[in-house]
Design goal:
Elements (H helix, E strand, L loop, with lengths): L12 E9 L11 E10 L3 E8 L2 E8 H6 L13 H5 L1
Antiparallel strand pairs: 1-2, 3-4
């Protein structure tokens, strides 16, 4: 399954990781020099949660931001009855 949020559409992004050496000019050096550039991935914080979708409870993949924003409606807690109540 892809790492994509169902509500916000967040997905894996790409970028560069830049390796530098040297001393910055404002610290008295001759400046930072780039010694290497490699590709990297920015992965979103995707969680698998149980949620109510179209009246049914199912597992969906959502970002942590969608959970904090309240976009996900969680199912009600199950009303469990103990052994003595069930037998009566």
């Amino acid at each position: 399954m892809p790492r994509v949020c169902r509500f916000t559409g967040k997905k894996t992004g790409v970028g560069n990781q830049i390796a530098r050496r040297g001393k910055a000019k404002y610290l008295g050096g001759v400046g930072k020099k780039t010694t290497g550039i490699t590709k990297r991935k920015f992965k979103p914080n995707i969680q698998t949660v149980r949620a109510v979708v179209e009246g049914r409870v199912c597992r969906i993949r959502v970002s942590a931001k969608a959970l904090r924003m309240g976009l996900v409606t969680k199912p009600q807690k199950r009303q469990w009855k103990g052994e003595e109540e069930h037998a009566a």
